[in-house]
Amino acid sequence: MSRKKRILLAHILGSGGKRMLNSRQDVECVEFHNTITPEAFRQLFNQFDYVDGVILGVTPFGAAELDAARGLRVVSRIGVGFDAVDIPCLTEAGVPVMVCANANHRAVAEHTLGFILGLAKRAGELDSLVKQGRWQERYDYLPTEIEGRRLLIVGLGRIGSRVAQLAMALGMDVSAYDPYLDEARWLAGVTRVTSLDEALPEADYVTLHCPKTPETIGMMDAQRLGRMKRGAFLVNTARGGIVDEGALFLLLVEKHLAGAALDVFLPEPPTQQNPLLSLPNVICSPHLSGVSAEAVERMGMMAARNALEVLDGGGDPANAVNPSALALAAH
After folding, report:
1. Residue 329: which H helix or E strand, with range?
2. For the chain, is the Cβ count within 10 Å smaller at the N or the C terminus?
3. Distance CA 290, CA 299 (A)
4. Rounded to 10 degrees, what is the CA torsion of 57, 162, 106, 290?
């Protein structure tokens, strides 16, 4: 009798994904807490003589984890981001890294639109007026409309394209900056801009939907934020570190920017001393834009399926961060 395929999985994997794994008689599942420390994570690997697959939430995975995971054949992420995974290391080892490529773009896009509307309608500030008994000040906090406003999307992938569709449906004038997207995949109705620096001064709202890479870390620095139109708004549901938070704070305090909405920070969680958290015109959420109840189930099913397909000798290249490793694993 052949040994079972052993998969370590983050406890946040949706119930559908767990059912899929547990329905397989040839699979053994071991759960770990999503916020397990790196040391405890490696110790967990050391308890087993082999581990075939890992399904990750937020847990980092690199050379040390790979060394501890004897026999590893696949790393599957519950989500689309992979900045916490050492892709070159795993690619060199021939281990495919799989993501849920089409599972949560709607959730992030709707969260982004909610942020844009929240900023325009000054939701946080007006909520405080009522709760603090400051009703008579309401005319000092007039909301604005988004119809006819210019929205600049940085990154027109699945999420950015869905944001564009929602924004255009509400009458916004949408443009996008994405030097890696060819014309065949460009969304109709969205104006293409070739220079981010030239586009920033024209936008009323700027929303970020690009991956965190060496190229995008610090992309929205003091200089770029300063190029934004006076009275504009910034939305970041991408990754912490893409925006210079210190520079953003200063521009908000100086009232060059009218407001910001942030789902991501650096570090996470942000410290309570982070000055952005003290500003009434900053809306925050705890890195949850892609984690709707529906998206959790979709990602759970896809993350489990991705792992099983690779272990069964297959796998969808569209979900592989490193397709070359997937091709190698298949053989």
Report:
1. helix 323-330
2. N
3. 10
4. 30
Is-catalytic flag, 298?
no
In degrees and rounded to multiples of 5, residue 63 shows phi and psi of -60, -40
- The residue from 92, 137, 198, 268 that is catalytic is 268
Residue 50 gets which letter from DSSP? -
Contact predicate 144/128, CB 8 Å: no
Spatial distance between the Cα atoms of 232 and 142, rounded to a whole number of angstroms: 15
3-state secondary structure (DSSP) of residue 66: helix
Kindly compute the dihedral angle of the four CA atoms of residues 147, 148, 152, 156, in this order, to the nearest 10 degrees: 70
Which residue in the list 239, 245, 298, 309 is annotated as catalytic?
239
> Does residue 256 have an active-site annotation?
no
What pLDDT band is residue 1 in, cutting at 50, 70 and 90?
Answer: low
Task: Give the other-Cβ count within 10 Å of 248's Cβ.
Answer: 23
The CA dihedral of 311, 315, 320, 325, to the nearest 10 degrees, is 60
Q: Which of 294, 233, 317 is nearest to 105 (CA)?
A: 294
105 catalytic residue (yes or no): no
In this predicted structure, the answer to whether residue 314 has a pLDDT above a threshold of 80 is: yes
Over the stretch 45-81, which tens digit does the pLDDT of each residue have?
999 999 999 999 989 999 999 999 999 999 999 988 8
Residues in the chain: 331
Tell me how far apart the alpha carbons of residues 210 and 135 are, in angstroms, rounded to a whole number: 40
CB 212 within 8 A of CB 238: yes
